[in-house]
Amino acid sequence: MKILQLVDTLYPGGAERMAVNLANYLKEKEVNNLLVVSRSSGKLADFVKNPDQVKLLHKRSTLDLKAFLKLFRLVNQFQPNVIHAHGTSIYWAVAIRFFKPSLRLIWHDHLGISQEVITNNPRHELKVLSPWIDFIITANANTESYWIQSKIKKSSQIRYIGNFPLLDAVSSTFVEPFTFLHLANFRSEKGQKYLIEAAKVLESRGLDFKVRLVGQAVDPSWKNECMELVSNQGLSNLVSVEDANPDVSKLMGQVHAGLVVSDREGLPVALLEYGLAGLPVISSKVGQCEDVLGNGKYGELIDPGNILQLTNAMEYLINHPMEGKRKGESFQQHVYETYGPKHFFKAYSEILKINFHLNLFEN
């Protein structure tokens, strides 16, 4: 059994982190696998436990023939049973499948669905490509429903499987004051500006705290706007805008609570990583976040974009740290039991066996 994953980059992000987690877990279970990165490597490459698994194509454009031929040669050499394509890597994966019809192709769609996405990025071209896609895995239930309703494939060929986190042991090294972590790439839908505005309100209430915004500048202009807002609001001592940090375990040990304040999401890996680290969490009601947090049992839930709700929830955690700690510990147990890798791979194994007659853990 051989699996070839295809992903655009290894810059810190949800899809990229899942690709690394898959590579590491498959390696641990002695499943022969290759992680092919089409465009450029990134800081997450350091967390692939076997560097020989990673192959880089240096793709410069969609029609980069040299890079595509390199991918084609890798496929010929490795002879995978399955190509597992993440996000927009599906286009080149379909091209490979066209030349290699015996391969099985799984598309892992990490995009959260909202009306904005449906309007601005409906991805109609995937209906044309769908005959070469054998199975679709989605990162949240709404995206699963969207593709089922679109009839891109039979409903039996589309399945939501929750992302899973892998995190090294977290050693707490944080100091006062109470520190919030927002781990998300800089894009408008991730809601960093809501958080900065909430910080301004908390400052006016005389609270002692810090907020760390950590992520890749996927949209550099958005990151610059966030930095300007921090400066204009006089919050530079309270809010830090930081580059992506792939050492998530170390990062989690330096903070007291985790935040998700997005307008839309699939199932953010960061939310699960907060859970593994035992952090109390505040999250907007988007994607699978409500489900992951047990509709509020394991963390505080707010409406997307509601700065007052966000501010009040942050103030509550600052003033009730022990209650937050207990909730974080409960969330930690919940994530271990419900969203660990064994649950992902149970479903993944079923897909391979039922659809392709392949046994994942037999070479």
UniProtKB/TrEMBL annotation:
InterPro entries noted in UniProt: Glyco_trans_1 (IPR001296), Glyco_trans_4-like_N (IPR028098)
SUPFAM superfamilies: UDP-Glycosyltransferase/glycogen phosphorylase
Xref: Gene3D superfamilies: Glycogen Phosphorylase B (3.40.50.2000)
Top-level division of the source organism's lineage: Bacteria
Family matches, as CDD domains: GT4_PimA-like
Domain named Glycosyl transferase family: residues: 175-321
Stretches assigned to the Glycosyltransferase subfamily 4-like N-terminal domain: 12-162
Protein name, as recorded: Glycosyltransferase family 4 protein
Organism this protein belongs to: Algoriphagus limi
